[in-house]
Design brief:
Structural class: mainly alpha
Strand content: under 5%
Number of strands: 2
Order of helices and strands: HHEEHHHHHHHHH
Radius of gyration: 19 Å
Distance between the termini: 33 Å
Number of domains: 1
Strand order of the largest sheet: 1-2
Largest sheet: 2 strands, antiparallel
């Protein structure tokens, strides 16, 4: 019965994404413009170069589109849903509902991501028709590992977004927090520059943080740069971060509800 409540919530969120599709498409368009800009920037960088830091142009092109897919699984509209509930005071009503706040938010995220991920995949296919094909995973096992890594990527990003949203209990600047979160995540996840391009000391720091599990690990598995037991190990690290961020989210939530301040209501 309890699980059915969260499944129903996920379905309602899917319907909301479709009903308010204009807001979602504006968010998706922003991500698409960013990826197109990155595409032509890296194309210029690779001009007359066969490889760069172990990446060929075709591999980098695939990396860019995997980045777009992972970032599109939680759109800006979905991300700010948590902070809006807190700042508007709607979170007070959530405290009265027989639902776990964190589980309810992840159910909403999963529901929205099914629609958002499918739309992102369609857009990628359309763009690839114009820009040329990209390499596919070398084996079916690599494809399965990529999908497992992609699910972990979604949950890691949710955990980080959720923790960032919790900060709105102590500030009214939800947009500022979201922009800060996006900047840090894009840099350390490898969305802007693959971690292989980082100086050695910075790459080691990035590998100790959860952000690489959002983009770099799934993209590296997709391209076959991480394979076999190394891929299994990296996916395991991703899921460790999923659990750690979930526990951290519960801990922050317990502290936040003790001093709820309703902004604007």
């Amino acid at each position: 019965m309890v699980k059915r409540k969260y499944v129903t919530l996920a379905k309602i969120t899917m319907q909301n994404v479709v009903a308010y599709r204009f807001t979602y498409f504006v968010s998706l368009l922003g991500s698409l413009i960013f990826i197109i800009a990155m595409f032509y920037l890296w194309k210029a960088i690779f001009d007359n170069r066969e490889t760069l830091s172990g990446f060929s142009w075709n591999e980098m092109k695939a990396y860019i589109f995997v980045t777009f897919l992972t970032n599109s699984l939680i759109s800006w509209y979905s991300e700010t849903r948590i902070s809006r509930r807190i700042i508007s005071g709607d979170v007070a009503m959530d405290l009265l509902k027989p639902l776990d706040f964190q589980k309810a938010r992840v159910a909403e995220t999963m529901g929205a991501s099914l629609i958002e991920g499918c739309m992102a995949a369609i857009i990628i296919c359309v763009v690839l028709l114009l820009t040329g094909a990209i390499p596919l995973p070398g084996t079916w096992l690599a494809a399965v590992m990529f999908l497992l890594s992609l699910v972990a990527s979604l949950l890691i990003k949710f955990g980080i977004v959720y923790l960032a949203g919790m900060l709105c209990f102590w500030t009214a600047s939800g947009i500022g927090i979201a922009w800060m979160r996006a900047a840090v995540t894009n840099f350390f996840s490898g969305a802007l520059v693959p971690l292989a391009f980082f100086p050695g000391w910075l790459e080691k720091i990035a590998q100790m943080l959860p952000f690489q599990g959002i983009v770099y690990i799934p993209a590296s598995i997709y391209l076959g740069k991480i394979a076999g037991m190394d891929a299994v190990q990296q996916i395991g690290i991703q899921w460790i971060w999923v659990v750690a961020l979930w526990v951290a989210g519960k801990w922050v939530w317990r502290g936040a509800v003790k001093q709820v301040t309703i902004h604007g209501g």
